[in-house]
Structure formats: structure tokens, C-alpha cells
Amino acid sequence: MEAEVKRTWAEPYKIKVVELLTMTTREEREAAIREAGYNTFLTRSKDVYIDLLTDSGTSAMSDKQWAGMMLGDEAYAGSENFYHLEAVINEYYGYKHFVPTHQGRGAENLMSQILIKPGDHIPGNMYFTTTRLHQELAGGTFVDVIVDEAHDPDSAYPFKGNVDIDKLDRLVQKVGADRVPYISLEGNVNMAGGQPFSMANLKELHGYCCSHDIPIMLDATRTIENAWFIREREDGYAHRSVREILREICDLTDGCTMSAKKDALVNIGGFFACNDDEVFRKAQNLVVVYEGLHTYGGLAGRDMEAMAQGIREATTEEHQAARIGQVRYLGEQLRNAGIPIVSPIGSHAIFIDAKQFLPHVDQDEYPAQALAAEFFIESGIRTMERGNVSAGRDPETGENRRPPLELVRLTIPRRVYTQAHMDVITESVVDVYKRRDQIHGLKMVYEPEYLRFFQARFEQIP
Ligand code: P61
Question: Does the annotation mark 117 as catalytic?
């Protein structure tokens, strides 16, 4: 029998431990962001009131996860927690083999080094910063094959994470299937605004890839959240469980990289998984070079235990209903207040369209970076730029990529903030919107070589 359902969503937990928040004055925040070179990644968390920088590693763990931490078997080899996690990944994701890694990019490094040869092309449903960098470091070139709707913040298309099979086919015809080692398929595409792919699209992709002998490697980081959207939006899935949908997705793919710091509700961890015995053998060998022995991969035993429990909790309907319900609540408040946000509202964050918010700031004066700094100054809310700074420079021309999407991400950690916090966020964003005409752009004064957005420094243009 189905458990009784509440009329609206509510947190499916009660709060046992709290962490007190600090509030600062406007003068203190102005000084802090100036010192941080107008880069929210360089601010200190002690100066932050509501931290919407990321949903990565910022989830609140449950009492059962914390209890699992006490069961950590901190053995160098053959930890019990490894075997437990292996069983859970096999049951929920279904892949035959896995190696743990310290986080998502550790898994990306292994996969890129194993599968990519110099000169290869790797199609993907939009780039992700670390994913693309690892592909490039392995000698590959990323090629965007996401549907056009994904690049339009106003399009209400329900599956903006879909792969455009024609774009993929054009690439395969041009370079040959033997130069395409795999397609990188991300669930709930982060850079597009947390947008899902549909099962219909994945099935079509699977058919295409089978006939061209191209593996599909999933970025499973937020695929449980993608499964929720399939259940909600796609014909025939309303009565399927999130767990079943996740398995169906994984069964149509050949392996995955995973940052467990998102869907899986842990503060650290990741893994690489696959079905191919030979690829697994190589990953098991390479992981000892970069991460640690293949039964811990850079994690403590307790981290693996917390991850196993986190996967179980993340695949429940109650968790996803509240998770996505909270993000949607914030998005609707902002939209009702006239704030330009990316449609449809995604699962992990609200993305504000900085081009529409600050139409007077040229993209090479980094409107989203400037806006993220203003949100911090206004009320100590820490957000993240996802636009021209994040996109970096085109390796051929050396110019800024000036991506179509110039966004500020208000990312919601899982099980951390309340609805009242969402209301405060809305009020703060609206206050900045009222004074948007007075906001100026930024000049980049320090640019690191890799993933520049993490450490770049800026000055305000007067
Ligand atoms: C985030 F500004 N995401 O969203 P790792 N794939 C996907 C991710 O979202 C992801 C990773 C792989 C972060 C952290 C972060 O440009 C940035 O466990 C879809 O972080 O290594 C991470 O997983 C990498 C923030 C990463 C960034 C890169 O906030």
C-alpha cells in the first residue's frame, strides 16, 4: 500500500542538528568581495549568509549516514565499506564494475585517459568545465551536440538536455566513428540550467550508437534528479519509480563517471563504473596512480559507507519531491517578481539570465560575474558565475568564447535551507534588480591557465 501523501511537498525529515549562520554588514561584505577580486570562489565562507555557490558536497547527511561513518573500515585493502558500496552501485545503477575516486573529476581523468586518443572528438550534451578539460588534456576535442533549445534561456522545451541526433550524425560522418571514442551524456545538464534528457531521446541515441559502435558514457552526477523529471514529464513514466527509471537509464549506457557530492548526498566522493571488462581492468590499474588502491580510490572507508546510504535515500520519491519542490518554489517566486530566469526550472539551481538582468553590460565585461558579486554585497548570498568566465577561451583563437548563456547560478544544497531562506533570497535578488541600472561590469586582472573561473581576479569598471 502506498504511504499517505501530503497535499503539497514538505521536507521528509526533521532537523536534529543545526549550524548557526553569521550575518555581516554591507561594508564588511563590500570589503570581502573586493579582497576576493570580485570572485565568489575566493570569498571565505565565514563571510557568507546563505551559501548558494554549489550543491556539490554541501548536502546535510542523515543520521543513518552519520551512523554509517562510525562503521568505517579504514583498512588500506579490501575495506568492507567498498564491498557494500559495490553492491549498492550494482543494485541501483546496474553497472558491472566500479572503482571509487575522490570526486567526479578523478573519475573523468581515468575515463579520459583510458578511452581518448589524441585527435579524437568527444560529442556531449553541452560541456562541463572539468569534463571538457580532461578530454582536452587527453588530446581530444569536445563537440557540443545538445539540442538548440538548450542554448535559449527562454525556451520552455521540457527536455533541453536531449542530444540532437542529427548534430551527432554530422560529426560522425565528418570525422568517422573510429575517431569518436564515446558520447558523453550528462543527466540534468548543469550548464544548460539543470535540464533533463528524455528516455525517448536516450533510446534513440542508444539505437544510433549501437549501429555505429559508439559507447554512451553517462555523467551520472545528477541523473537521479533527471529520473525524477522523466517520471514527471514523460508519457508512460508517471507510475514508474525513480529507482526503476535510473536503472533503465543506466541499462541503456555503457558506463559512467559520478560526482557523488551531488545526487548521492555526501560531502566527498565519486566513482567510475562500466560494463566492459577490459576498460575496467585499465581503470583499476590507473586508479592506483592518481587516487589510491582500487578498493578505496582516495576515499576513507567511512566516506564509502555514507555514499552507499546516500544513494538509497536519494532514490526515494519523498526526497526528490522535496528537493525539486524547494528549487521550484524559489524559481516561481523569482519569476513572479519579474526576474529573468532560465526556463524550465531545473532541479539543482535557479539560473538568472544576466544578459537580460544587465543588458547594458557587454559580455566581455562579465555581467554574470558582476551580478554574483552584487548578490553577495546585497545580503551575503554566495552564488556562482556560469557564463563567459566559466566558458574560458577558444584554444584556436584565444578569444573569450562568449557563450549564448550568461548566467548566475543560485544553487540549492540538499536538505540544508528552509522555505524561509528561499523567501529571503527572493527579496535580496529583487532588491538588486531594482538598482540594476547602477551595476557596472568587471575587468579581469588575473587569469589562471586552467579552469580560470575558480581563481580569476577582477576589478570593477567605474
Ligand atoms: C558544481 F564551478 N560540479 O556544479 P567534482 N560533472 C558535473 C558536475 O556538476 C561536476 C563534475 C562533473 C560542481 C563542482 C564544480 O566549474 C566547476 O566532484 C555535471 O566537482 O570533481 C561538478 O565533479 C565534477 C564547480 C566543478 C564548478 C567545476 O558546483
Answer: no
Q: Which of 111, 135, 259, 386 to mutate to test the pocket of ligand 1 (most atoms within 8 A of CB)?
A: 259
Residue whose Cα lies nearest atom 24 of ligand 1: it is 104
CA 339 to chain centre: 23
What is the spatial distance between Cα 388 and Cα 372, in angstroms, rounded to a whole number?
13
DSSP β-ladder status, 407-411 and 121-124: unpaired
pLDDT digits 0-9 by tens, 345-365: 999 999 999 999 999 999 999
Given the DSSP bridges, would you call strands 216-219 and 121-124 parallel, antiparallel or unpaired? unpaired
- pLDDT of 1 higher than 70: no
- Tens of pLDDT, residue by residue over 390-405, are 999 998 999 999 999 9
Handedness of CA 32, 36, 39, 43 (dihedral sign): negative
Backbone angles phi, psi at 37, to 5 degrees: 60, 35
Please work out whether the CB of residue 54 comes within 6 Å of at least one atom of ligand 1: yes
Write down the pTM of the prediction.
0.96
* Structural element, H or E, at residue 379: helix 367-379
Residue 127 falls in the annotated catalytic set = no
Residue where the block lists cell 514529464: 233
- Which of 76, 446, 450, 454 is flagged as catalytic? 76
- Ligand 1 pocket member 261 (CB < 6 A): yes
